[in-house]
Amino acid sequence: MSLEFELCPGRKVGGDHPCFIIAEIGQNHQGDLEIAKKMIRMAKDCGADCAKFQKSELEYKFNKKALERAYTSPHSWGKTYGDHKRHLEFSHDQYRELQKFAKEVGIHFTASGMDEMAVEFLHELGVPFFKVASLDTNNMIYLKKMAQKGRPMVISSGMQSMDTMRRVYELVKPINPNFCILQCTSAYPLLPEDVNLRVIQGYQKAFPDIPIGYSGHETGVAITVAAVAMGAKVVERHVTLDKNWKGNDHQASLEPSELAELVRSIRTVEKAMGSSEKRLLPCEIVCRDKLGKSVVAKTKISAGSVITLNMLTIKVAEPHGFPPEEIFDLEGKTVKRDIEEDESVTEEAIENYNTRTKC
User: Fold this and answer.
1) 333 three-class SS
2) What does the H/E/C string look like for 231-266?
3) Helices 33-45 and 92-105 sit at what angle, rounded to 10 degrees?
4) Is residue 48 situated within a structural domain?
5) Is 2 part of any domain?
6) Residue 151's pLDDT is what?
7) Which of 229, 247, 273 is the last residue of a domain?
8) pLDDT tens column, 183-238
9) 114 & 239 share domain
10) How far apart (Å, rounded) are the C-alpha atoms in residues 6 and 20?
11) How far apart are CA 71 and CA 203, in angstroms?
12) Tell me, what's the pLDDT at 246?
């Protein structure tokens, strides 16, 4: 069983705890604070556990030439990439306002710190956990500094190899044991054949003492639900209010109805996972009593006879007799009273029969 830890106040992940569902708002808010608030409320209304954003300190994330390059994409919010990113970036005060709003709504609030200075701000802000975006997962200096701050960590693994993820685990674990790794493929939208859900099992085997999760960029909800059935303890999906909005992530995001469906489906699957013990359940008794089969005499069996298998058959019968799985145990037993043809074979008709414990 994977290690469990408290990811947010009062909310543990791992072990037998419910899957923690992150609604990744990212920068799908179009740079509009009121839209961002609507999306936080939407995430709460749909049943997600956390609303997450992406925070950058642009001069620390990009060099000058990267910010100055022309950006002519139809998704652009400015003439240069810097102008585009500045349009989408909320200020520190705006983040404080969003955090306050999320608290009022009643949903956990955090962000991916997209550079070291953004992490410093989020730490000061007091987010419950840090999210490491895939593009920073091999940034070992960044990871070490983040781990040393002591907050729980959720680490995506898009664009990385298993060797890199082992190095990440070996770096973070001794410093901060409260982290999980998410299987992720960094393509938007993600095709099913590139998802590789079996990596979840690979991570579970390689890192058995931490929770494993899934961050998806595919369309629809089925693959993410399958990830939970495979043991994902944290899942993250991008969300939007309208897939037709301008922005690279909207097509790979879930609209409100889809997010609500995802949450419902995950909770249903968690209920369905149940116990690994196979036994007769109370809900099955009605069906068993109505249609469960019993051992029946194929012909009349006279008192004193020694039973052979050709004397017996299996039918739905009244009253219930020996269950079919015990027919071989009856071979060689002595009958102490007549059993009529087509009559159920019951314990009271058999000499010295030791009743076996049955469910």
Assistant:
1) coil
2) CCCEEEEEECCCCCCCCCCHHHCECHHHHHHHHHHH
3) 30
4) yes
5) no
6) 98
7) 273
8) 999 999 999 999 999 999 999 999 999 999 999 999 999 999 999 999 999 999 99
9) yes
10) 11
11) 38
12) 86
| CATH number, residue 322 | 3.90.1210.10
* Residue 106 placed within a domain: yes
Backbone angles phi, psi at 192, to 5 degrees: -55, -40
Range of the domain at 88: 7-273
How many domains does the structure of the chain reveal?
A: 2
Q: Is the per-residue pLDDT at 73 higher than 90?
A: no
**pTM for the whole structure:** 0.90
From 247, 273, 299, give the residue that closes a domain: 273
CB atoms < 10 A from the CB of 252, how many?
18
- 153 closest CA partner among 162, 143, 161: 143
> Can you tell me the distance from the alpha carbon of 42 to that of 49, in angstroms, rounded to the nearest whole number?
11
Claim to verify: residue 97 and residue 37 sit in the same structural domain = yes
Q: Is 199 helix (H, G, I), strand (E, B) or coil?
A: helix
Whole-angstrom distance, CA of residue 231 vs CA of residue 16: 10
Q: Average pLDDT of the chain?
A: 95
